[in-house]
Amino acid sequence: MKSDILVSASLLGCDLSNLGKEVNRAQDSGVDWLHFDVMDGTFVPNISFGQPVLEAVKKHAKVPIDTHLMIKDPIRYVEEFAKAGSKVITFHIEATREPLMVIDRIRSCGAMPGISVKPGTPVGMIKDLVPYVDLVLIMTVEPGFGGQGFIHETLKKVSMVRALTDKLDKKVHIEVDGGINDKTAAECRKAGADVLVSGTYLFGSGDMARSVGLIKGL
């Protein structure tokens, strides 16, 4: 059964000592995208992957790589991550004073631009930017660490963004990231999300294909 819901597997939750095998396991289980978190230790209190790791992932990738930049001044690295294999590049509104320039740079590099907000950031901060992007990422946990609990109050923001995108004459994905499992996925789908990021739940599953189906609501 086909679903309009996309599942993006967060590599932050995989066994990094077997990165290639984990990428293939996720793809063989039916994930639609591979979610690649980039943290700089400044915008968020953690450091994760850089371009060399993305290039390694690209060697195994058969589905689009969905890159989430949790870094200050993201425009500095857009071109490098696009060249390394990112098909979707999302940045944080809180990380730049020139969001339209970042959006234009992402698109000019051949990637889909996305914009993200932390749990405490109001949707009003990105309202005027929604028509210019292809994806809005609502963080359902505080960015920076995997395995956190889902913040239910963020569902209101998902619904608010869905109301904004429904008025447009183009497709804008609404992505959620943080604490996504079979139960929270159902809440996110109901609120209007159509791209669900999951790491700990998916990679910790004994039957990932079944878990992908549950996230999609199949």
Structural write-up:
- This protein has 218 residues and is an alpha/beta fold.
- It has one domain (6-216): Aldolase class I (TIM Barrel), CATH 3.20.20.
- Helix content is 32%, strand content 21%.
- It is built from eight helices and eight strands; from the N terminus they run βαβαβαβαββαβαβαα.
- Strands 1-2-3-4-5-6-7-8 form an eight-stranded parallel barrel, surrounded by six helices.
- Helix 6 links the parallel strand 7 (173-177) and strand 8 (195-198).
- The chain is globular, with a radius of gyration of 16 Å.
- 45% of the residues are buried.
What are the salient characteristics of this protein?
TIM Barrel, alpha/beta, about 20% strand, 8 helices
Provide a short characterization of the protein structure.
This protein is of the alpha/beta class.
